[in-house]
User: What shape does this take?
Amino acid sequence: MQLPDAEVLLQHMAQQLKPFITERSALVGIHTGGVWLAEKLHPLLDQAMPMGALDVSFYRDDFGQAGLHPNIEPSSIPFDVEGRNIILVDDVLYTGRSVRAAMNELFDYGRPASIILAVLVDRGGRELPIAAQVVGVTLGLEARQNIQLNRDGQGTLGLSLHEKAA
Assistant: This one.
């Protein structure tokens, strides 16, 4: 399968997001890939817009089963969430569980006016009724396939496809 160029998808997402931007907007990325995307989207949208990051590890409903992720990052929301129009950014939308966890964590910071979900890849396979308003690309992947966002030393983003072991 030929994967699309992540940097081109990012530009497409920025264009889709522009109509959603208000003076009360804030950009929030979900660690790790969503933060990388948010960092690249920020200068394309509005440099004055506040930006934050969430690590949803402790908010996931499978935390007890999966245990502690080895690379937990601190969440950082350096602005008041109350009444903000949050643009929540993630790399891959699959089951919807990470997004649900991110919304739960956001509400611990305050009550946003709205949450817009922007994802680089929607791969289908939802387990929760969650949909993105902004999508870079929709790919129909099989359950055994895993798509991942990568970043090289220069900050260039790329997608890779992996087969899960049987």
Q: What stands out?
A: The longest strand covers residues 85-93.
